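Researcher: Please predict.
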Amino acid sequence: MVIIYFEDHTTDIEGQIESWVAQGYEPWVMFNSSQDYTGAYVTGKYDGLPHRDKIQRAADGSDFGMFDEGAYLVPNPHWQRYQKAFVKRSIRAGANAIVAEEPEFFSTAGYSLVFKATWTTEYGTPWVDPAAECQVPLEGPASDGLALPKPPPRSL
């Protein structure tokens, strides 16, 4: 078995899979599900449209987790379509397994407009600033005023 990393839309996944299969290996494909490491998506090299609005943002509005041209992204339908294209190409090329690496979203990075809109759509409630509203006091004599994060509301 060999794991081939699908870095961005320019990766010759078809050629790499073919090469490893020719050597007798079972090809698996891995891609990063939370970040655009090369910046191909963020900068618009992929589709001609920049997607900086989909970067995870800190409370002060700054981009969260930037590196070179890439960044950590908010899960959203457009980013998911970009990733599904990796999966489809990999399967068509003969990948035996797909590994979605690092599905990370940082608790201090939920301040972008696209995150707020996605929150509202997903949970059916207005976005709430986690720094201001996500604290629930512990009860009882041993709590000493400690607080735990409040989980997001879930619809059943």
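Model: The longest helix spans residues 77-93.
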